[in-house]
Amino acid sequence: MKNLNTLLAGVFLAVALPFGALVLSGQSQLGGLGRAAGEDGGALFPSREPGQAIQGRAVYVSLGCVSCHTQQVRPAGQGSDIARGYGVHPSVARDYVLQPQVLLGQRRVGPDLANYGARAKSDAELAAFLAAPAAGVNHPPYAFLTAERSAALVAYLKSLRQDYSSPEAKLKQ
Amino acid sequence: MTQDNRSGRPQGRPPEGDGRISRVEASLRGPFLLFFVSAVVWLLAASVLGVIAALDLGSMVGVLRDCAWFTPGRIATAQQDLFIYGWGFNAFFALNLWLLAQLGRFEFRNGWLAQLGGVAWNLALTYGVARVFAGDMTGYRLLDFPREVGPVLAVAFLLAGFWPIVAFARRPTGHTFASQWFVVGASFAFPLIYLLAQLLVLWQPASGVVQAIAHSWFVANLLQLWFGASALAAIYYFLPKVLERTLTGYYLAPVAFWTFFLFAGWTGPAALVGSPVPLWLQSTGVVAAAMMLIPVIIVAINVHGTLSSQGGWARAWNDTTLRFVSFGAVAFTLGGLLAGVFAFRSTSAVVRFTSFATGLEQLLVYGCATMVVFGASYFILPRLTGALWPSAKLVHVHFWATALGFLAAVVAWLVGGWQNGQLLANPAVAYADVLRAGSAWCLVLKISAVLVLVGHVAFALNAFGMILKSSAPAESGRHD
User: Fold this and answer.
1) Range of the domain at A21
2) A1 and A74 assigned to the same domain
């Protein structure tokens, strides 16, 4: 403990080993994942985001929505996400391979949005809700959003879907 | 300095009969005060934002409601960043530098470099927070600033926060103390973890959920290896210093240090239990969180063992510095034990996504680290300024407002989070009913946010009043 070099070497290893084992190994295991077809073949999932949804993702990030909403459905036994209708199967790593920013979130002040597109209201209803939520609803009003940004946010929220089949999360067993 | 202080007057005044400060402290005065004043200013700003967030003013008040700057997401993000990077880093730049300079008899001849780093750090932080308010943020908690801010903060850290390592290298004696190991570890680890996280999350984003893995690794390291290690360094210094007694079981301190650094870096994935990441990663995080009980228990033996003998608790209660530091030590133990227990899958399944995780985090960064910095300030500032704290009443207001405000908040986060999690686990309970059930805890959080702000204002008034009245000669320090 008297030698600075020994101390620094020990701290370096204490930082580098978990980084290598957790992050780099994670990248090695998951980095090659791509889109895949379900058990019936056909289209590849997850789908690519429409252009307006990409703009909407930027609005979602800029409003800090990730502070209150998660985008991950946990498996049975780890909460009641599926029973609450947040998704039809647990989220898997493949669901996020096309996302430039993975916004899993850590806190649920509002409901999970991983599969929100499958249960969303109409565009008009959703835009109206975002601008002026009904009294008693625990959601801030975003009346300041321009029509263009509001439409982009709605498009993004409706693009959030995980109701397809994939090799890791088959809908038909 | 060690006599009972029933009047509440903070200790730490310069030795009687010699108004001059030591050469070591004289050399630190400029950089220390820059970091300290910056830290307190950011703490006040974060506290005001904390009140706005808790009272939900952004949604209630017309002017704020129609302004994008005051959306809850931006307020919460800016508040966290100001507290962590503004208060937490500036405060520990000051405290870590002072600690290692004292322990290594280090006369700081390049204070201007540290001050340059401090100015760069605060300018980058100001820019980053302004961009957060403007909506230009990344979506990754505690890495929220636009990515151009990261390299500036890293360079500023090297200028402002690396000096404790220099002080350790130049110490005149071979003997070392636990405080030195923890500060050297914290000062060396942070730039590594910050640069690696910047690289894999923002500059060359990893693929898919690997970003979330890298992010969880970063957050765990930031909180444990910067805040946790720096706070432990101060606890290991002030407790024996003020009590004038060796720590109980001090021979175990090297084990505490190495196990703390060895296991802390692996705990990140414990925050991803149930997430779409490989199970082996989640299990590794859970095991590491449980292994963290080893350093937590050793620190408890060292600290609480010392306080529990020879009237230690009574003396701690009557000494302003020790009162805050002991509060921080208890919070560290409690937070460490809870973090170990609630990392397991069965308990994590209940509290995941609730305020429980906030409670655990705040036990470390506020209950432990912030309270320890407050205690250290009551010891150090009189020595650096050559003055006494202007108001003993404000010291009492500071302690009681922050202690009660924090305790109320942490109960609300932990108990409220547990209740919230149990209701959420039952799909028969509607989401609206879950939220309604938590409204009482929201009221507690509002009151606590106001209390904590009052405490911080009292501390700032006292500290700034003292610094403004300071007459200590910076250049004519005495020889120790």
Assistant:
1) 1-32
2) no
